[in-house]
Structures are given as structure tokens and as C-alpha cells.
Amino acid sequence: VAKPAVEIIEGCRLPVLRKNQENEDEWPLAEILSVKDPPGRKLYYVHYIDFNKRLDEWVTPDRLDLKKLQFPKKEAKTPTKNGLSSVPGSPERDVRKSLDLCVPAASAPSRGKTLPTPKRKAESVCLATQVSAAVTPGPSAEESQASVYPALRDSSFSIQPLAALSTNGTTRRLIPLPPGRKRKTCGGTDEMVKVFQNNDPRCSTIYMPPGEDSQDSSDGIPSAPRMTGSLVSDRSHDDIVTRMKNIECIELGRHRLKPWYFSPYPQELTGLPILYLCEYCLKYLKSLKCLQRHLTKCNLRHPPGNEIYRKGTISFFEIDGRKNKSYSQNLCLLAKCFLDHKTLYYDTDPFLFYVMTEYDSKGFHIVGYFSKEKESTEDYNVACILTLPPYQRRGYGKLLIEFSYELSKVEGKTGTPEKPLSDLGLLSYRSYWTQTILEILMNLEPEDGERPQITINEISEITSVKKEDVISTLQYLNLINYYKGQYILTLSEDIVEGHERAMQKRHLRIDSKCLHFTPKDWSKRGKW
């Protein structure tokens, strides 16, 4: 009697053949999320364990390694006090259940407490560990500061003249101040950054006591990030539908985009091979014929709203989520295809959208955008930020970030993006913060024949980057050293050369002279 074929069901885990970045075959472990049986052969929707969800895909049976098939654990019924039976779920479901018990319910979807998405590839930490860290109350400013800078609490911040300092084989000497000369500070709680003279003019060492409210961070964000955010996704309500991509392909102007994640487009459009979007108003249509008919009626050749910046072919448009609801909602639907860590609300009234476009003879084509709350109690200057895939790795992401901080400068505020950042977003922000801070430190000019001085608060005021982000970036770069009771920041020759190479490649920059922007006081405008 022939042995029956193994039936693969949802929840099974097994190795699946895929190509890596070097176009080599690999067999990572994957979970079967869905099975469909169209005419011909079965297809399986798989999620690669410890990989980003954007790599999820439908695969054919010939790519599955059935020899190492792992079936989901059987659900055992256990009696409870009220006589009802309970069924244990997956570890991920158990963690979510514990979160529901530990985390209070949100009163409003756009202001409630939410949980960051566990990172897949970047950190090999189990889900339970990440969630327990997320729901544990963060340390106070004093506790966090004591853990990062153990000797800081007992120091008097006085700078003693050093005869010589040897770091990385380079001898440096501190130039003492003349008698009776006092060092300048920006305030009683400000931090003094002291620049040391050294034999190599390309290297510099900086004295930097940390901020009072600094937090330990090895990845550019605080170790206990705030969970409050207007668009942070609450992963405790994930289901099998939202874990799967539902749009096969999007045609936007001259580009065809392959979505990375689920987006709540109407159900009747999710089965289409191609979803067509008008690149000017972002309206979605089911066929090319419908799109052609729409283009004869659509009068837009640029995003609605005010053009507040133009230099060359690059323009930025400011769009009010209350005045242009239809466009804002369509923009959010498109962005959700490429953002997994944010949720989507149809109430766009509290948000402003800044859309970056590229101009040609046919009109203004969308490149990317970022959104921000009209009023943010957390000093957020970005809620969501996205560069569309055809324009990625060309400097547009950093241009969006730079523009967001340029607006903060005009507003006279320091800002920070909403946490958590996506993996690509975190890389872009780290790179921007690094280049911006190093550019300031390397361009400091000496005063009265002495080495220049600068404080952390002054760096923050010049760049509009929040003080915590300045400190965490220096920590991430591992530039902070402790020497004879002082915290010093050492810029090695490798750091300097790497920065110069990066700046030579950075051709796109924001010109503040081309910005025509007047900030509004939304607190006096009632309900926006």
C-alpha cells in the first residue's frame, strides 16, 4: 500500500529554499502562514524565522524540505476554575496574552500606549525577552545616568590641565587657560565639551560630561523608549490576515512596486494582479482602462497643498490632513505597503504631511514623504517617514530627515522621530545624526588662539537634534572614553576619513534659503 503524502498545514515549520543577497542558495527555517490550492499546484505563504516580514512570499512545493518538517504542537485542553477548557497557543500568542494583562488599554487609538515591533534580523533576542523589556518600566533619569556614567554623580565637572594624554598611540596635550580666565557654559545644567590640541590636526579629543537626562543606548534610541506615539503599531492585535501581503503589485506612474507588507485596501482589489494608482492624487483603480479614464478628469499635476520648498527639480509640499483628507488617506494606504511598524488611521486631521517630489515636463512625481503631528507633547518632529523603493539608496531618505530638522529650526524647537524606528529608518537616522554631529565638531574654529569649546546643548540648538539623540549617537559610535576623572570624546583618523568620504558622496542637501515656511500655532486653532 502506498504511503500517503505528508499534508502541510498552517503553523508547520520547515526549511525553505531561497536566494540570499549574494544570489546563493540557502535553506532558512520558515513558518507556513497560509496554503492555497489554485488550479495546477499548491502554493504556500511562508515567513522566514528571524527575517524581516518584507521577505515573506508564496512558494511552490519543490522549494520545501519535507525531511525536516515540524508540525505545530497539539492543542491540549486543560480544565479551569469555571469548568471551561483553555487551549494553549503559540509562544507568541502567550506573550501577547501576558501583554494584555500587563499593559492598560488605550483610551484613543492615536494616543494610546503601544508596543514596539520586535526586531527580526538585527537582534537575535527571543520575543519573550523583547516584550518583557518593553513592558518593564524604564529607569529614572538618575538611575540611567548612574548606570552609563558611574563616576559622574561624584564629579564636580572641573577640568584639570593635563600634561599629556595618549590615546590610540597619538600624544595630545591640553592647553591650559590663562590665570583668572573662566570657561563659558550655556547654563547651570549644561555640559561642557572641551577640545584638546593634538599632534595630528586631523584628529581631535573632546571632553564631554553627559546630559542629566541621558539614557544608555547602543542603537541610537533610548534603552527604554516611550511607548506613546500617534502611529506606533500595537502588535498585540496581529492576526493571520494582517501578517500576509495582500497586494501583488502596484503601478504608480512609470514604476511598478512590489509591496512589502499588508495594507488595508478594499477587499475586492486585493485579488488583482496589478493595482493602479494615480501618481498625482494617489487614487486607487482596478484596471488600466479605469486609470486612463481617471487621468482625463484629474486636474492635479502635483500634490495638493502649499509648495514650501523648491531647488532644482526637488520640491516639498505641505498638506493638511484635515483639508486634504482623501489624498492623505490614500498616501497612508500606499505607505502602509512599505511600513510594518506603524498602524493606519483614517482620522488624518491631527497630522501634517510633507511630500517630496521630483519635477519633469509631465508634473511633480512623488519620491517620499514624512508626516508629523500638529501638536506633539513628546517633541516628535516625524511620525512616519518613507522613501518609495524606486528612489531608495540615492540620498533621498537623508534629504527627508534633513528637511524635517530644517522645519524644527524654523520652529525654534529640537525634535526626534517617533519610536520605534524601522530597521531602514534607524540606519538612515544613525547616518544623518553621525554626519551632522561630526560636521559641527570638525568645523569648530579656535577663539583667541585657544582650542574651541562647545557644549551638548549648543550642538542640540545648532542642529535641532534632541540632546538624547546627540548623546546616544556618540555612544553608538563608541567615541566616549573615561580618563582621569573626565569623559573625553576621541575622533580617530579613521572616523575623520570615513566622515569625509561620506560627505563627498552626499550630493543632495537642503538649502535653507529656498525654504518658504511659516510655522503655525495649532493650539490656538481649536479643532485644527
Structural class, judged by helices and strands? alpha+beta
Question: What value does the Rg take, in angstroms?
Answer: 27 Å
Low-confidence stretches: 81-192, 194-230
Distance between the termini: 74 Å
Q: Number of helix segments? A: 10
Mean pLDDT: 74
Helix proportion: 10-25%
Q: And the CATH topology of the domain at 12-63? A: SH3 type barrels
Q: What is the subunit arrangement here?
A: single chain
In total, how many beta strands? 26
**Beta fraction of the residues?**
15-25%
Tell me about the biggest sheet? 7 strands, antiparallel
The CATH level-2 architecture of the domain at 12-63 is identified as Roll
CATH class category of the domain at 12-63 = Mainly Beta
Shape: globular
Descriptive overview:
This protein has 528 residues and is α+β, with helices and mostly antiparallel strands. The chain has a domain at 12-63: SH3 type barrels, CATH 2.30.30. The chain has 10 helices and 26 strands. Strands 9, 10, 11, 12, 24, 25 and 26 form a 7-stranded antiparallel beta sheet that branches. A 5-stranded antiparallel beta sheet has the order 17-18-19-20-22, sandwiched between helices. A hairpin with a 2-residue loop joins strand 13 (250-252) and strand 14.
